[in-house]
Structure formats: C-alpha cells, structure tokens
Amino acid sequence: MPTTPSARVDSAIGRPTRRRVLGSAAGLGALALLGTPAGRAAEPVTRPGAAVTKGWLELWQKSILASARKRYCDTETGEELGWFLSPFLNGFYHGYRATGDAKWADLLMDWAESWVKRGVKEPDGFVGWPKADGASTNVVPGLFTDNMLGEAMAFHPVVLMADVVGKTPALQGRHGAAAARYLQLAEETFAKWDARGCWRATDAGGVWVVPPFGIDQAAGRFTAGYDSRKTDGFSHPANKQNHIARWLLAMGDVTGKPVYHERARLWFQTMKSRMRLRDGKYLVWNYWDPAGPWDYKANRQPKHWVGVHPNGGYYGIDAEGIAAAHEHGLVFDKADLARLIATNRDFMWDQKVEGATFRRIDGGQPEGQWKGSPGVLWAALVPHDATLRRIFEANHKPDGWGGIASTPWYLATVGRG
Fold it and tell me: Helical H runs in 72-208?
C-alpha cells in the first residue's frame, strides 16, 4: 500500500545539501495515545479540484527531468542512497501511478540498474554500497561501511515498482527479469542486516541498530567490532526506524512473507510505547531513546542526548511511518490517527492556510540551523483530513525539490479532480 514519499525540501533545483534535505519546512511526520481522540474530528477529504492542481503535472515533469540529469544513481552510496537517490525513485514510481505512462517505469528501472550494478561483495558475502564514515552517526564514527537506512529508502520504491512490473504485461516483457532480480536483492539486503545482528528485541517490541564495525579495506575483512556485533551498536533514531519499517511493509506486501510485517509491527509497538500525551489531547515524543544496554556508555550515560529534536522534518518522517502502519492495520488505530491529526492541525499549525507555518511538536523555541522549520506539515495525513489537504494545496511547489516525489504521490493518492 503506497504511502507518502520522503521528499524533504522545496528549494531551487540542483544538488541539495544533506542539511537542506533533512531540514525541510515542506516535510511530512507522528503518534500514540490514551483515551478518546482529541480536538475536532478529522474532516472528510474530497478530491482536489482540477483548478487547484491544473498544471502540477507539467511543472513536476519539467522539474524532475531537469533534476534527473544529475543522475545520483551513478554516484551515491551509503546513507545518501536514501536522501539523494530515493526522491527520484519515488518520483518515478508515483509518476507511473499518477499517469500510467510507462516512461516513468522505464526511468525507475534505469536508475535502479545504475545503482544496483555498483554494489560490491563485502567480507560476509553480502552486497553493499559502502563509503567512508558510512555509519552516518558520530556515535559510531569513522568506519568504511554500507548503511541500512540508505538501502531501505532506495529499495522501497524499487520493490513497489517490481510488484507493478510483475502484474503489468506491458512492462513485464522489458523489465520482468530485472524486477525479479531487484526484489531478490532486496530480500538479501534484509538478510544481510539481520545476519549482522542489527535487529534487537526489546520489552516493547524491537529496534534496528547501527552495527559497531566496518570494512578493513587493506585486510579485506571486517574491523574488530564485528565480534561484538550482537551486543554492541547504536539504535537508529525514530525517523530512521520509520523509514526502515516502511520498506519492510512494502516487502511484506509484495512478497507475502510474514517476517517483514512482523518486524515492522514490533518497531511500531516500540514507537507507540515512547509517545506521551500533552494537555490531554496532543502527542509528543523524542528523536531518540535508548533501547537497550548497547545504547549506554560504560559510565551508564546514554550514548546520545534524549529529547525533542529542533528539526521538524524528522517528525514528518515519523508521521509517514505511523500513517503507513495505520493503513496496514498495524498497532495504530483510528483514534491514534485522529490524535496525530489534532497535534499537527490544532496545536502545531498557525491557522493560516496561505503561507502556513508550524511550531515544534513540544511548543519549544526554534533553534539553530532549523529555525526556519521547527515544525512542518505532516503530509502523510493529507489523505485523512480536509484541512491539512487545503494547507498542502495552498503551499505546495510542484517544481521544488520536495515536489519531485510528493507531487505525483498526491495526485495518485488523493486524486486529480
């Protein structure tokens, strides 16, 4: 079941910096609750009028094709597979869903092949796309390694397109063999991170961790941390857990294998257990929480600070995961979704449709490099609430960086009038 793409920024076309990608004020995000839903009930969503979305496809097509000349599929590795490659893969996938035009499927398969063929066999026999400092966290620094998040984000739309190809005779002839190969590689990638001890069961459910080892390129083997891979490491923050979980939902949908949905369910249980009720009706949660002994230093201090992150975009990603879980009937129910909508619409939003802004999920002051995006519209909720839909339509930039994936997603999911 397709859900919101992870496009992060409405900005000038060109290569975004990772800071801009992660700090989008046009982002998307979250939840868990007690009692009955807060705030007013979610408004029924109608299809957008043709006048509102007129020209969106044309602007989007020019934008994505111009940006695609950068061909991140030819160069990116590690976590950047997620932040720079996946927006285009999502755009191509949802472009096909919105238009039925096979050129978008062709583009996705071309980009997927360029990325996949650059994979290298690592010391345990699995394929990866490693880079220097590939763990992408200062808690596990300096390792030459591949990155689970980047691979999950990139495989997500590829897996969904593989399913489309397999069910569409017009695409099966020219893409069927490649689609089957990509799906097999996605399953092997799950097996890789599982075999490396990156899944940990917890009292609440389970989490994925960044492994404490990399590749010793000179020796052709893993570094010393490999021996403690099942007990050491660092739990991914919530936004990364949710990206991974959404990939696993897609994997379960397409393969029919229960293990993928079960792992996603266990993470969603963990996330829900961490959410707190504010003022009896709104929700708040931390960017990161320790999940087990591996998340503590020898002095029993957490390896990372605990609290609400000033980057509102992270919570938009969380909302994507929660909305996807709800749509799959996992963990989060209608009452949860209503509470999530109330948080974004009734607490965070400034009540202005044109030029809408959002405050932090905890009501705190904007900070540092994220002063311009303390909170964002949680676009994953747009299909479920008419007010959030109106905000989306009034502020959406179909030819911005964020529009690369979100424009066709919106048209395919909510409708074209």
Answer: 80, 86-99, 102-116, 148-167, 169-195
CA angle 400, 401, 405 (to 5 degrees): 100
Three-class secondary structure of residue 139 per DSSP: coil
Long-range contacts from 211-220, C-beta under 8 angstroms, 24+ separation: 211/135, 211/140, 211/145, 212/140, 213/143, 213/145, 214/130, 214/134, 214/135, 214/142, 214/143, 214/144, 214/145, 215/122, 215/123, 215/130, 215/143, 215/144, 215/145, 217/144, 220/123
How is residue 31 annotated by DSSP? -
114 closest CA partner among 182, 60, 176: 182
Kindly list the distances between the CA atom of residue 87 and the CA atoms of 4, 133, 148, 389, in Å, as whole numbers in the listed order. 11, 22, 17, 21
| Ramachandran region, residue 217 (left: φ > 0; alpha: ψ -120 to 50; beta: rest) | alpha
Q: How many CB atoms lie within 10 A of CB 195?
A: 13
DSSP-derived 3-state class of residue 75: coil
Residue 375's DSSP bridge partners are: 358
Instruction: Give the chain's domains with CATH numbers.
Output: 18-413 (1.50.10)
Tokens representing residue 144 in the block:
């030459």
How many angstroms separate the CA atoms of 317 and 27, rounded?
A: 8
pLDDT (tens digit per residue) in 141-169: 999 999 999 999 999 999 999 999 999 99
Question: Who's near 228: CB < 8 A, 6+ residues apart?
Answer: 212
Q: What is the DSSP string of 230-289?
A: TT--EEPPHHHHHHHHHHHHHHHHHH--HHHHHHHHHHHHHHHHH-EEETTTEEE--SB-
Ranking 46-60, 253-267, 313-327, 399-413 by mean pLDDT, the lowest is 46-60
**Would you call 114 exposed, middle or buried from its count of C-beta atoms within 10 A (0-12, 13-18, 19+)?**
middle
Q: Which of 404, 407, 413 is nearest to 108 (CA)?
A: 404
Q: What is the CA radius of gyration of the chain?
A: 20
Amino acid present at 406:
S
Check residue 47 and give its pLDDT. Answer: 57
235 phi/psi in degrees, rounded to 5:
-65, 135
284: pLDDT strictly greater than 90: yes
Backbone φ and ψ for 121, nearest 5 degrees, come out as: -80, 130
Q: Is the pLDDT of residue 25 over 50?
A: no
Q: Nearest to residue 293, comparing CAs of 225, 214, 228, 226?
A: 228
